[in-house]
Amino acid sequence: MDPGQAARQAAAIHGTDFSKIPEFKDITAESITQHVLAINSNCPDERTKFIFQRLVNHMHDFVRETSLTTEEWMAALDFLKATGKKCTDLRHEFILLSDTLGVSSLVTATNNPKPPGCTEGTVLGPFFEEDAHDFHFGESIASEGKGHYMYVEGMVRNTKGEPISGAIIDTWESDGDGIYDNQYEVRDGPDCRGRLVSEASGKYAFRAVVPVPYGIPSDGPVAQLMGVLGRHIYRPGHLHFQIQAPGYETLITALYFEGDPYLTSDAVFGVRNSLVVKTELVNDSALAQSRGFPDPSKPHVLLKQDFVLPTIEEVKALKGP
């Protein structure tokens, strides 16, 4: 049997329908982009086809514009391989890569238009977990000894100023050493993270610790890339929030603290001016005791912040048809 006949028999077994596949034979640096676009044109989903059309165009243009060498391309592939190897169930190195290149922040900004007065969103980050414990009003999301005391309170409301009752509030933060619970080698359970529900008045409150600036994980390829680019790996201290309520757009955001020197060079481009907050230092032991702090003789930081959520319909109106 000649090779051509053998190949046709194999194709018949594969079930490949060549009548629907654009033909190409002579692949050159000038023609390859159009050939790739043509063979991808059978994608049945128009949105997916459009995305990959633009991706292929931009990637091929990038190769031509930079005269990318084989060695540089292989280094990039090895970097992506190393990034994948660093991922675990509790660590997503590709999210970190997206964050440090500003892509996460850009996607968040372009996909989350909000009416005036609403709380701005920002990046989710790589340390969110689904296993947070449920807490009641005023309870602590952090175990004792995790950092300087902080009391957080405020209201969840809509654009009309009305309270949103029953909003599910996920919150998480690094501890006083700048480390998240899922970064420790031994993790007995969630700490410095929790889930609570806004009251009928829309109010919420919980105890936490003061988050401090920290570096992104320094043992992975993303941190190595930051070094190659001459950048530092640090983020300003911040407190994460994810707030959900029926009929309202989910809010993913974080609060940053006035005076933090890293506000203007956040490694993941997450800071928004509207999310930088002032705090108050409280030295009232009676008030500390009423707020439930185990050692009321210690001062605590008071953080007050209201969150304003738009309805799903309000956001749809901004996005248009």
In short:
By secondary structure, the chain is an alpha/beta fold. The protein contains nine helices and twelve strands.
Can you walk through the features of this model?
The model has no long low-confidence stretch (mean pLDDT 95). It is built from nine helices and twelve strands. The radius of gyration is 25 Å and the shape is elongated. It has 321 residues and is α/β, with parallel strands linked by helices.
Question: Would you spell out the secondary-structure blueprint of this structure?
Answer:
Blueprint: H1 3-14, H2 32-39, H3 46-66, H4 70-86, H5 93-100, H6 103-111, E1 149-158, E2 168-173, E3 193-197, E4 203-209, E5 214-215, H7 221-228, E6 234-235, E7 238-244, E8 251-257, E9 276-277, E10 280-282, H8 285-290, E11 300-304, E12 307-309, H9 312-319
Identify the notable features of this structure and list them briefly.
single chain, 321 residues, alpha/beta, 5-stranded mixed beta sheet, 9 helices, 30% helix, 18% strand, elongated
